[in-house]
Write a structure and sequence with these properties.
4 helices; three-stranded mixed beta sheet; 45% helix; GMP Synthetase, Chain A, domain 3; 19% strand
Length: 118
């Protein structure tokens, strides 16, 4: 009985991850088209949360903070079972090229109400 429940939770998290990945691939293709990348880092099916990391050419991009906020807003609206999404910058080989500039841009009010065309 416990094995079936664990399998169900793992499959649900995998399904949420797949749905999130599909949404980003299909609705935010400019991330990859412009040399950026994303990865679904963590999905907590029970809490309805996910963490998405963006990197590559997104790092240091002038509109990366807007893209991050848009994903945080729109992904939960588009994937059943997701209540909250956190978008972070990738680390390691995909780390931000200009993290101090990106941090500064994330604090700018101009990015607060941005609605990209996806």
């Amino acid at each position: 009985m416990i094995i079936g429940r664990v399998r169900s939770i793992v499959m649900s998290a995998t399904t949420l991850e797949r749905q999130a990945r599909n949404y980003l691939s299909n609705n935010v293709p400019q991330i990859q088209q412009h040399g950026g990348d994303f990865e679904i880092r963590d999905v907590d099916e029970a809490a309805g949360t996910a963490t998405v990391a963006i990197g590559g050419a997104c790092s240091g991009c002038g509109i990366a903070p807007m893209t991050m906020k848009a994903i945080e807003r729109q992904l939960p609206e588009s994937v059943d079972g997701l209540e909250d999404v956190e978008v972070v910058r990738s680390g390691g080989p995909r780390a931000a090229v200009m993290p101090s500039k990106t941090d500064e841009m994330e604090e700018m009010d101009e990015y607060e109400d941005y609605s990209p065309p996806f």
